[in-house]
Amino acid sequence: MNADQKNKINLVVNSETKPYWEGAAKRQLLIRACNACGKVHHYPRTICPHCFSDDTAFVEASGNGVIYSYSVTRQAKPPYVIAYVELDEGVAMLTNIIGCEIDKIRIGQKVRVEFSEAGDGYALPVFTSA
Amino acid sequence: MGINGKSYIVGIYEHPCRAALDKTLPQLHAEIAKGALADAGLSKDDVDAYFCAGDAPGLGPINMIEYMGLNNVRHMDSTETGGSSYIVHVNHAAQAIAAGHCNVALITLAGRPVADAKEGKPVRYYNQQAPDFPFEMPYGPNVTNMYAMCAMRHMYEYGTTSEQLAWIKVAASHHAQHNEHARLRDVVTVEDVVNSPMIADPLHRLDCCVITDGGGGIVMVSPEVAKSLKRTRVKVLGAGEAPKHLAAGQVDLTYSGARWSGPKAFAEAGVTPAEIKYASVYDSFTITVLETLEDLGFCKKGEGGKFVSDGNLISGVGKLPFNTDGGGLCNNHPGNRGGMTKVLEAVRQVRGEAHPKVQVRNCDIALAHGTGGLLGSRMGSATVILGNEDA
Ligand SMILES: [Zn+2]
Question: What ipTM, to 2 d.p.?
Fold first, then answer.
């Protein structure tokens, strides 16, 4: 990817990420939860970054959140919106905001997950106005 | 065991080139090493410790020590924290000298992103094996939009404005006009900055640093060696380093790792922000400076916008002269790594050898701070405090 373009999506599917992408393919947004300490985290790891337990599992998130921050990459054609969305479950994730009038996007705006095609049957979780 | 007063910077060199089409990467490292050692009045055979970061080719120290013929090295360090690496190296060299592992440490940085682009060489790609990569790269993060999100959030929480951020660039440009090597020497106004093209909201083109080739080097020595040299010596008073990241999803973009590296450095140096006469502050973007100044305690969190306004960072005008070489915003950001030049200008200020138009009077204590990686996700922050012999 060069400095300004958001090019073809190349998902990294490996033993640790595969369930996440399989969930997205089924239109589920997965986050990782720890059975030992009860906390969730993102991006997902097999060992909990809070308590270092290996008793972790994917759980489905509600898909609802609010925009924590965002930016419009103006030089790209077309311009795209990168954002951190705070999920209702309490973790933030890097994502794109799609399907909104770019100049009306605001921090604090309520958004919900959508899925954009990412090739090979996979999908990428993105967000749009709730 | 602290490092305060246990080592000195006695040699520095900033490569004058800003585009290195006719030079290789190892050659730049060697020219820089030669320049820094000459400044110190030392030879390559005096060097018994070598420090470099991810910009060095191959296995870093191994290849560069061979290339340069550094035959007496007994201590090596290739700590990589992005653009702040060289400030971390100053800290580590000070520790190694204090522990008796070495007496003469050489640190070099070199890069040629301008030449590489012209030659069609691929940009060094962010490591696909990094655990964050699968969950971030599909969304098109780049350096500018990742810093832009920090500015956007800072504006939201504290009412910071584009005009306030612009003052940081304005101050850098006032200094760069006096630097014959600076990539950009024209003085700009707040209006120039906010009217320049939007790159990634809310950052304009003039909120962004330059891209340059070249690099810089530092020679650090023990007090005994320092006393044997004719060069004005600059004492290392204290240093701190800290990682900061997305904290498993508890994202806060309104502060940097300077919140932790700064207090460590101040405590070790035994000084307060009010005693700092000059500050080199990493300026990949204007927002980097603003958040860092708050985190280092030069003003309260959220008041950075007010603090940087009205020329407060301009030497001879404001209370905290910063980046008097023109910084990364106007002078030099070699290899996209600005930590080295931050130390170099702080050393010039303490020596009294900055350009007369920007030299801070009685500059007995100076600070240099680096932010490596991305302010908008994960970074390595490093702070060093330097002083003259009496500090
Ligand atoms: Zn846990």
Answer: 0.96
